[in-house]
Structure formats: structure tokens, C-alpha cells
Specification:
Helix content: 25-40%
Distance between the termini: 23 Å
CATH topology of the largest domain: Aspartate Aminotransferase, domain 2
CATH superfamily of the largest domain: Type I PLP-dependent aspartate aminotransferase-like (Major domain)
Structural class: alpha/beta
Bound molecules: pyridoxal-5'-phosphate
Number of helices: 13
Shape: globular
Order of helices and strands: HHEHEHEHEHEEEEEHEEHHEEEHHHEH
Strand order of the largest sheet: 1-9-8-5-4-2-3
Length: 386
């Protein structure tokens, strides 16, 4: 089977992990801050807080922005469930804003309409979480302006997008957001096995997230509320979690950072090649906005079902049967049974439904060979009868 995505691990990556295993610290040692610094420098952002997953990063990002009961958070329906679940962890409500028909990212037009209505109804969101689907940045300038106008905060879910750019600046610099989150799951652009990071330019938000990732415990005297009992003393001043990243993971991440640009440019050559090879097939290839340089975590095609004699499901199954482990990113979140129980219905977002009926993620990862790519395209050609 050719997977839809996979990690790229070098001997240097392995050595970096082994070095930590032979060192004094498996966790809470020097590798985590070194990795945080490397990512912060790369992204030109002031603060980076490494955690054990992007899911955890989204959770503490929401908490740091004060999301709680009676608050509302909006995100895109075409995302991994974690982008929405983070609000529910905080006791907040979630709603979904439909996607743009070309980028499949949150639609700024739909967002503006929904905000105008929400203002009339007195139910404006506290936080909006745009997701850079496949690594393609959302229209952040417009979303930021709407944030100013309606008073919401912004968390960029950039789980797909490290290594990408928006208006020629690195995604993650938080120029148009309060916090940006990355994922280092093995299918993503770089990996730490499991891991995530929250970036911000706001010192107070960074401190809050550092506190929350480690039980809400501080050892900084300035943050304490009581006199020290002795040198062993620490204070728990908030209800935090154990969301820490280990040094083993951070060492892998730091080593992977050295090849980040190479990974992304390899993804672009693969995408360019797909673009050529798929030119005459009845599929829509990913549209790339000129304002962005995508991380290209995913390569999503859409079937032109009116030109194909087979259904979406049949094409999907045929690809899998032929050894191409295609996937579908994503099922609109509101279609999940857990969300349906909260009152959401199928069809909540029209454009998301169209997307869901046609999308297929073809294999996309730096190690994909030309030969494998040819094989994928040949199989697809046979199936869609072109
Ligand atoms: C992968 C992913 C997450 C969650 O990342 P983890 O590191 O696995 O917790 C969140 N949002 C999006 C869009 C993702 O793709």
C-alpha cells in the first residue's frame, strides 16, 4: 500500500534521539527549549510553547484566551475534530462557518455574514479558529479585520502549515492572530512522534500557556501568592494539565527542523508533478492562492462526478483496492454523532457538503517517488475512465 502520508526519518534524526536517551534528561531538559527557540526563530515569533500534541495546544490556547462557559467559538467544518473539541473542553459552545469553494478554508464572506447576524442576535464568538487546510493559509488579513470589528480573538490552527508562508512571511508569526498552533504528528510536515506547539507574540499568553501545560504550577517567585515555605516550595496557581513534551520528542523535532524547507519544497515538486499528470483527468486539482506558499500537508483532488461514470465511494474503494491508501480530509465535523447529539444536522454548511461528496486525498509526503506517483495516476486514470 502507498500511504497518504508518512514521516521522513534520517540517521541524524535517530542519532539526535539516541543522544537524549544517553543524556541526563528524558524530559524537562534542554531539548524542549532548544526546539521551541528553533521554531520561534524560524517563524519570527516571540514565544513558543511546546506541548504533547496540537490538541493540547488548542486546549491551552483557548483557556489562555479566557474561553469558558457561555462563550462561543467558531471554526471551519472541514478540519480534524480537535479544532472544535478544544472549545468544548472549556465548556464553550461551538459553531461552524462554511468553507470557500476554491481553497476549502473558512470563507471570509460566510464569516462576515454570520458575524453580522450574530451581532443582531447577541451571540458573537469569543474566538474564531481558522484552519489552514492542507497548509494553505486562510485570508488572515480579512479575518483579522473582522476580529477588530467584532471583538473576537484568533487562534490559527496551522497543524498542516509549518514551513508555509502568508504574504511572504512565515506562517506562525502571529501577525494576524493571537496564537498559532502546529502539530508534529507523523503525517504532518515535521514530526516529534506526538507533539504540538503554541506560538504567540504576547508574553502574558505565553506565560499562561506555560503554566497550563504543567499542572498550573509555578516556581517563579514573582508569580507566587504566598511566602516560600522553603527551597522545595512551588505553587499551583491555576488548574493545569500534564501536556509537556519530552526531550526525546523535542530532539527529534529539532533535528527535523533542519530539513523543514527541504520537506516543503519536495511537497511542492510532487504537487507540480501531480498537476501535470492529472491535467486531462476529470478531477479538480488544488487551487493555490497567490498570497500564500502552502505547506502542502495534503493533496486533495475533487472528482468531477458529472464526468465520471462511478460514484465517489466506488472511486475511493477502487483506489484502495489497487494499493493506493487514499483518505478523506475531512468529514464535516458537525456530521459526527457527538456533534449531532448537540443539535447539528447534516447539511449545516452547504459548501462543506459539496466538498465532502467529492474530495479525495492522494498520497503526499517527501518520500513519495516518481514511480509511485506514476502508479497512483495510472490507477486513477483507469478508475475514472479517462
Ligand atoms: C492533526 C491535526 C490536529 C491535532 O493534532 P495532534 O497533534 O494530533 O493533536 C488539529 N487540527 C488539525 C487541522 C489537524 O490536522
Amino acid at each position: 500500500m502507498i500511504p497518504y502520508g508518512r514521516q521522513d526519518i534520517s540517521e541524524a534524526d535517530i542519532q539526535a534521539v539516541v543522544d537524549v536517551l544517553r543524556s541526563d534528561f528524558l524530559t524537562q531538559g534542554p531539548a524542549v527549549p532548544a526546539f521551541e527557540n528553533a521554531v520561534a526563530n524560524y517563524c519570527q515569533v516571540n514565544h513558543a510553547v511546546a506541548v504533547n500534541s496540537a490538541t493540547s495546544a488548542l486546549h491551552i490556547a483557548c483557556l489562555a484566551l479566557g474561553v469558558g462557559k457561555a462563550d462561543i467559538v467558531w471554526t471551519s467544518p472541514i478540519t480534524f475534530v480537535a479544532s472544535a473539541n478544544c472549545a468544548l473542553y472549556c465548556g464553550a459552545e461551538v459553531d461552524f462557518v462554511d468553507i470557500d469553494s476554491r481553497t476549502y478554508n473558512i470563507s471570509v464572506e460566510r464569516l462576515a455574514e454570520k458575524l453580522a447576524q450574530a451581532q443582531l442576535d447577541g451571540v458573537l464568538p469569543k474566538v474564531v479558529i481558522p484552519v489552514h487546510l492542507s497548509g494553505q493559509p486562510c485570508d488572515m488579513v480579512a479575518i483579522h479585520l473582522l476580529g477588530r470589528q467584532y471583538g473576537f480573538k484568533i487562534i490559527e490552527d496551522a497543524s498542516h502549515a509549518i514551513g508555509g508562508k502568508y504574504l511572504n512571511e512565515p506562517i506562525g508569526n502571529c501577525r494576524y492572530s493571537d496564537i498559532t498552533v502546529f502539530s508534529f504528528h507523523p503525517v504532518k510536515i515535521i514530526t516529534t512522534g506526538e507533539g504540538g506547539m503554541a506560538l504567540t507574540n504576547d508574553l502574558q499568553l505565553a506565560k499562561r500557556m506555560q503554566l497550563l501545560r504543567s499542572h498550573g504550577i509555578t516556581r517563579e517567585i514573582a508569580d507566587m501568592t504566598q511566602a516560600l515555605d522553603g527551597p522545595w516550595y512551588y505553587e499551583q496557581i491555576a488548574l493545569g494539565f500534564n501536556y509537556r513534551m519530552t526531550d526525546i520528542q523535542a530532539a527529534l523535532g529539532l533535528s527535523q527542523m533542519k530539513r523543514l524547507d527541504e520537506f516543503v519544497s519536495k511537497r511542492h515538486s510532487i504537487a507540480n508533478r501531480y498537476e501535470e499528470l492529472l491535467a486531462n483527468l476529470p478531477v479538480v486539482t488544488p487551487w493555490q492562492h497567490h498570497e500564500g506558499y502552502s505547506g502542502l500537508h495534503l493533496y486533495v483532488i475533487r472528482l468531477k462526478l458529472n464526468e465520471i461514470q462511478k460514484s465517489h465511494l466506488v472511486v475511493f474503494e477502487a483506489l484502495r483496492a489497487a494499493g493506493v491508501a487514499v483518505n478523506l480530509h475531512y468529514i464535516p465535523v458537525y456530521r459526527q454523532p457527538y456533534y449531532k447529539r448537540m443539535g447539528f444536522n447534516v447539511g449545516h454548511c452547504q459548501e462543506a457538503e459539496h466538498y465532502y461528496a467529492e474530495a479525495i486525498s492522494l498520497p503526499m509526503y517527501p518520500g513519495l517517488t516518481n514511480q509511485q506517483q506514476n502508479q497512483i495516476v495510472t490507477v486513477l486514470k483507469e478508475i475514472v475512465g479517462a
